Fold this protein.
Amino acid sequence: MGVMRLGHASLKVMDMDAAIKHYENVLGLKTTMKDKAGNVYLKCWDEWDKYSMILTPSDQAGLNHMAYKVEQDADLDDLQKKIEDWGIKTTVLPEGTLPSTGRMLQFNLPSGHEMRLYAMKEYVGTEVGITNPDPWPDGMKGAGAHWLDHLLLMCEMNPPEGINTVADNTRFMTEALGFFLTEQVLVGPEGNMQAATWMTRTTTPHDIAFVGGPRSGLHHIAFFLDSWHDVLKAADVMAKTKTKIDVAPTRHGITRGETIYFFDPSGNRNETFAGLGYLAQRDRPVTTWTEDQLWNGIFYHTGEAVPSFTDVYT
Amino acid sequence: MSLFDTRPKVAVHVAQTGEQYPCASSESLLTGMLRLGRKGIPVGCVNGGCGVCKVRILDGETRALGPVSRAHVTLEEECQGYTLACRVAPTTPVHLEVAGKLSKPFSRGRADSATASPIPQQQ
């Protein structure tokens, strides 16, 4: 019961044609729907609901909202009460507010990011079906990403002012939505300030992550690949398509993921990653990264600071 | 001109430091700027979305390479010549002012490797 998984992300893009080309040809998503307002809906081959990405035309880049799917419609009522009791206002958006999608519970995280929960989205099936399926479909493009896996949100943090929305979000996600903490970065003279957290509802190391920054925004959305070799191939695709790579293939200490960071044509950061790291469980002890070892946590091999990685986001 | 870069270039002048760098008309002002070898020139998304490479064009003509986020360059600023260095290429010699986060790497005096020399630095 309750939240199952990340359902979709809605992103602002400045050049729709370039964005569609990027998400289709580099990541391998397919367009499943377009609406009258010019929004474009896409999904990965291994996803079964109608869409996991919404691209909306805009004069800027960034995240509109992210949505998580809950198991039962009644969960929305239950969670609405928990969220309101926690002290956050909610709005119920009626069915059809987004096409092929049931009613949505809309609210803002303490960091300001808009989050939505929904129970129903039109089922269209994966590209390999459910009866004697092949392990992958023919005609995959680009990286052939399996699914939208997680987001990392930059969250306003200003310790002298007593603002730490990483810690606030983490508490909210735990207490109201039933997520659990898998890893954290603790900083400050006492080493007790949560500057970044990784949280999950599934059994993967993160369904969402929060990192402190001067203002709230989107750090990246991540798509899942099978193996290290698929990560290499994805980097080849990026070279072929002249996609701007931010961080070439490497491994994270945090989550143990094998990764590439790159940018979509509007400057929204994407990640393709492989490796489910470990089995995330509620009784698994939380991993802590200290301030002095933080960059080994981020880029395990070099352990070197890459300022653009923390300073650049939409 | 370097042996491996024979593209015709124009001079781009940075008002704050008086530095000058050669920039091809087929590359962004940001790509050319990296040849100054100044530490900390921020290379962000290079797609106009993140806003770390803000400049103000004081003189000269540029060509747009793609859209620039309104979250980082307002309409009013655009009218005053502000843009993102990753999204414009020079078509004539350009005089520019670095702005926003791009001001910082230019606030530490003239870099040792800063160059007006005809030999571009290796990137």
